[in-house]
Amino acid sequence: MSRHIRVMMATLLIVTGILVFLPSSYVGAGGIVANQSFEDGVGEVPSGWNLTGNATRVDTGPIYVGNWTARITGGNDTLTLWITKVVEMMTYDAWGWIYVSGNVTGVIALDFWSASVNGTQLTPTIMLSATDTNGAYVQRTTTVQAPVCTTCLRIRLLGIDWNDGAEVRFDEIGFFWLTGYCFIATAAYGTETAAELDILRNFRDQVLLKNTLGSLFVEAYYKVSPPIANLIEKNDFLRAVVREVLVDPVVHFLQWAQGLWRA
């Protein structure tokens, strides 16, 4: 086994062993996962999504994690997903990647509801959008707060201002709560803007989220980490121990080895 492979394996084991992931502008498979349903779907239908018009899922080869993406080719095409058990007054991070070809605007539309389908829409629709992306996927993100009485979020993937021959694809759609210091490394540093956290984010995005096992681990972590982070946040001694004994050594190691794993 080469030295580079040994270093990469050691880095992966150390980082995943202490659960040091946190939200950022790109989280490929974390939180309340909508994107994984593209991979889990059957035939042309992503799991959990309702399709109208000619909306479909297509195998376009490797895209971040997996091969599948959602695609629309006309103004009547829409993919709709209802996320239930949304907590009122909670702040959420929402994101998605959009590929646009031709004269059209690709849109990820978000709105909060009192109940799915037959409920009342509680907020104006928030739109993450992109025009022609020059053959690449571009990310769009936003932070939103669920209003009082919210129980559901509706996500729609669509396009506006269509011209014939245009196409829009969507991938890596996600939605995750942000409240206090929900993640262990963030709680250990006491802030979301510590420079050390950028190293951890970059390793997650450039190494872990580019393979299935790493993505599944990140997803599982996002589901179990908040109570651990809350405990760390409330105890100054514990926060110092976690930071100095666990997180700082990993950050220093990643800085030393970044020539091997940085894109």
Q: Overview of this structure, please?
A:
The chain has 263 residues and is an alpha+beta fold. It has two domains: 32-178, Jelly Rolls (Sandwich); 181-257, no CATH class. Helix content is 33%, strand content 29%. It has seven helices and eleven strands. The chain has helices spanning 3-18, 36-40, 184-189, 195-206, 212-233, 236-256, 258-261, and strands at residues 32-33, 50-52, 56-59, 68-72, 78-84, 91-101, 105-113, 126-130, 138-145, 152-160, 167-178. The strands form two sheets. Strands 1, 3, 4, 6, 9 and 11 form a six-stranded antiparallel sheet that branches. A five-stranded antiparallel sheet has the order 2-5-10-7-8, with no helix packed on it. The longest helix is centred in the last third of the chain and has 22 residues, at 212-233. The radius of gyration is 20 Å and the shape is globular. The two termini are 22 Å apart. Residues 5-10 and 16-34 have low confidence and may be disordered.
Briefly summarize what is shown.
The protein is of the alpha+beta class and 263 residues long. Helices cover 33% and strands 29% of the residues.
Present the secondary structure layout.
Layout: H1 3-18, E1 32-33, H2 36-40, E2 50-52, E3 56-59, E4 68-72, E5 78-84, E6 91-101, E7 105-113, E8 126-130, E9 138-145, E10 152-160, E11 167-178, H3 184-189, H4 195-206, H5 212-233, H6 236-256, H7 258-261
Antiparallel strand pairs: 1-11, 2-5, 3-4, 4-11, 5-10, 6-9, 6-11, 7-8, 7-10
Helix pairs in contact: 1-6, 4-6
Notable traits:
263 residues, alpha+beta, Jelly Rolls, six-stranded antiparallel beta sheet, five-stranded antiparallel beta sheet, 7 helices, 29% strand
